[in-house]
């Protein structure tokens, strides 16, 4: 388990060095979705603190108990967020990476104020303009960034994407970076087990890695 963590960290360091970037610029988000706590605990014990989950309900079941032993966890929501789960998400997550529509952004702003908890936010961009995929369309991203950051005053850190499967992700990662650069955002959550080295070459500041750390998941996990 922790040897996989070391291997992924080494690969991140190598990709960063090849890109001429300091490895400290890149955060590893360990994607623990579908994995039980006894699989997550060794990674926590090894000192890792940044994790990603894609379902609010599953995170609510797993993480409160882990936090009792490891209070400094930085938990990221990386899956779609329904409006009726916003309050629970705000209570559980330090970061919401999947802000992708005005209604959701407004709900996060309102409920964050009510809860007195303000998770850092990323806007998910549907870089491949895929019908079945979440994310704001690239041509609507600038306006949506303005709404989130300037009007709603969300603590917007950057942008997140999941490029189309089975294609070279480079143009999609590059597109995400262009949108971030022209809007003065400097964090990019992009790259998964299969393509995080490419994402680092394209400017990723965090990579979301599940399989390479925790092994395979059941289908549709
Ligand atoms: C599951 C998931 C990941 C991790 O994928 P792996 O290929 O297992 O590394 C990354 N990002 C999102 C949004 C995910 O849902």
UniProtKB/TrEMBL annotation:
InterPro entries, per database record: Ala_racemase_N, PLP-binding_barrel, PyrdxlP_homeostasis
N6-(pyridoxal phosphate)lysine PTM positions: 33
Pfam family of the protein (one): Ala_racemase_N
Cofactor(s) the protein needs: pyridoxal 5'-phosphate
SUPFAM superfamilies named in the record: PLP-binding barrel
GO MF, one example: pyridoxal phosphate binding
Keywords annotated in UniProt: Pyridoxal phosphate
CDD domains listed in its UniProt record: PLPDE_III_YBL036c_like
Domain of life, source organism: Bacteria
Domain Alanine racemase N-terminal, first and last residues per copy: 5-218
Xref: HAMAP family: PLP_homeostasis (MF_02087)
Family: Belongs to the pyridoxal phosphate-binding protein YggS/PROSC family.
PANTHER family: PROLINE SYNTHETASE CO-TRANSCRIBED BACTERIAL HOMOLOG PROTEIN, PYRIDOXAL PHOSPHATE HOMEOSTASIS PROTEIN
Purpose of the protein: Pyridoxal 5'-phosphate (PLP)-binding protein, which is involved in PLP homeostasis.
NCBIfam families attached to this UniProt entry: YggS family pyridoxal phosphate-dependent enzyme
Protein name per its UniProtKB record: Pyridoxal phosphate homeostasis protein
